[in-house]
């Protein structure tokens, strides 16, 4: 059986044609599952009984299983989803003034091995299927349907920054983006979708030609090859000059501003010297720097005590930057944390 949530509209149209069905059935099905949120084919009342009978034999609307939900005092919610093969992944819902934002996982585990990341401590088991990514967004949205404020019932932003390296699962992630962006699908605006990569250069260049205007964030975190080689193994394959050159090509092609993510680690990358090196590195690039406080709950590194000084220094030197407000501090919000606890239990 094929999970219907794994199909882009175009793929579904092709599938319908191959089944001697009219392609517009794909649009109807999209509307039923993403706009009217039906959970069974029998509720698709405009499809005709024979057609419903046929598609029931081919597709499922199976969901993932919510294994655990943690709710933080600040409203951040973390979900542990159980997949069909018993693997677990995490999804985080964050509530901002501008809307509800979901951070999704793209792989079970991750092969990139970033030293500060709990997810990287366990190797990739497999890529997520498209439907497993779509359902993370849809199922979190389903959990919001009892919210009093109507605006809070809809996921408006998606960040692809959870467990896994999205560019290591490129085709599935691109199909996922098309489904959640589709006006007949979840209709999340391209500019409200952000994909973060640790720096897989060939895919950055390929992504520059992706037809949707998705935001690109680079997990930079260190301003020199020496530090980056030490803490992010990907840098040994694509060192900073190669990475920066791909970012410049990306910008030339898309004219879209890049975000650099920079996690502040105590005594490692939070000195004024590092700030100066960072400024020098990104000079001339239309970018934005997102400084992230280390979440100490994974016990890997210490949170910087100089975050504000680092931030002020960048700011004074005319770098567009923010010091990210930390969310979900009282739950296992560090990426990969909840999944690891579950694995340890097993
Ligand atoms: S930071 Fe991202 S790319 Fe690096 S190990 Fe963690 S999940 Fe993988």
Explain this structure to me?
By secondary structure, this protein is an alpha/beta fold. It has 2 domains: 2-60, DNA polymerase, domain 1, CATH 1.10.150.530; 65-345, Aldolase class I (TIM Barrel). 35% of the residues lie in helices and 20% in strands. The protein has 12 helices and 14 strands. The protein has a 10-stranded mixed sheet with strand order 3-4-5-6-9-10-11-12-13-14. β5 and β6 form a beta hairpin. α4 runs parallel beside α5 (170-181) and α6 (201-207) packs parallel to α9 (240-254).
Mean pLDDT: 93
- Specify the number of helices: 12
The global form is globular
Order of helices and strands: EHHHEEEEEEEHEHEHEHHHEHEHEH
Low-confidence parts: none
Helix content: 25-40%
The share of residues in extended strands comes to 15-25%
User: Which fold name is given in CATH as the topology of the largest domain?
Assistant: TIM Barrel
**Helix-strand category:** alpha/beta
Summarize the structure.
The protein is of the alpha/beta class and about 350 residues long. It has helices spanning about 10-20, 25-35, 50-60, 130-140, 170-180, 200-205, 225-230, 235, 240-255, 270-280, 305-315, 335-345, and strands spanning about 1-5, 60, 65-70, 75-80, 90-95, 100-105, 105-110, 125, 155-160, 195, 215-220, 260-265, 285-295, 320-325.
């Amino acid at each position: 059986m094929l999970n219907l949530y794994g199909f882009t509209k175009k793929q579904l149209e092709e599938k319908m044609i191959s089944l001697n069905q009219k392609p517009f059935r794909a649009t109807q099905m999209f509307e039923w599952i993403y706009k009217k949120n039906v959970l069974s084919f029998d509720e698709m009342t405009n499809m005709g009984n024979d057609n419903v009978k046929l598609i029931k034999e081919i597709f499922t609307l199976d969901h993932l299983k919510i294994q655990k939900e943690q709710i933080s005092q600040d409203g951040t919610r973390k979900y542990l989803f159980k997949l069909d093969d018993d693997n677990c992944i995490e999804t985080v819902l964050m509530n901002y003034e501008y809307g509800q934002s979901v951070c999704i996982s793209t792989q079970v585990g991750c092969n990139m091995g970033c030293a500060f990341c709990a997810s990287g401590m366990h190797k990739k088991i497999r890529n997520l299927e498209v439907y497993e990514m779509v359902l993370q967004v849809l199922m979190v949205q389903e959990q919001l349907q009892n919210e009093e404020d109507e605006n809070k019932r809809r996921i408006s932003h998606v960040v692809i920054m959870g467990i896994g390296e999205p560019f290591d699962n490129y085709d599935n992630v691109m199909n996922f983006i098309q489904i959640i962006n589709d006006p007949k699908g979840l209709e999340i605006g391209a500019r409200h979708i952000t994909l973060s990569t640790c720096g897989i250069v060939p895919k950055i260049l390929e992504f520059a030609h992706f037809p949707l205007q998705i935001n690109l964030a680079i997990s930079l975190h260190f301003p020199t090859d020496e530090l980056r080689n030490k803490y992010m193994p990907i840098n040994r394959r694509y060192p900073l000059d190669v990475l920066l050159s791909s970012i410049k090509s990306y910008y030339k092609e898309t004219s879209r501003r890049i975000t650099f993510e920079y996690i502040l680690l105590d005594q490692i990358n939070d000195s004024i010297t590092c700030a100066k090196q960072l400024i020098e590195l990104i000079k001339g690039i239309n970018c934005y720097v997102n400084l992230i406080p280390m979440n100490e709950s994974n016990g890997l590194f210490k949170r910087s005590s100089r975050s504000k000084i680092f931030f002020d220094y960048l700011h004074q030197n005319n770098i567009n930057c923010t010091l990210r407000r930390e969310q979900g501090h009282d739950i296992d919000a560090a990426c990969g944390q909840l999944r690891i606890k579950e694995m340890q239990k097993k």
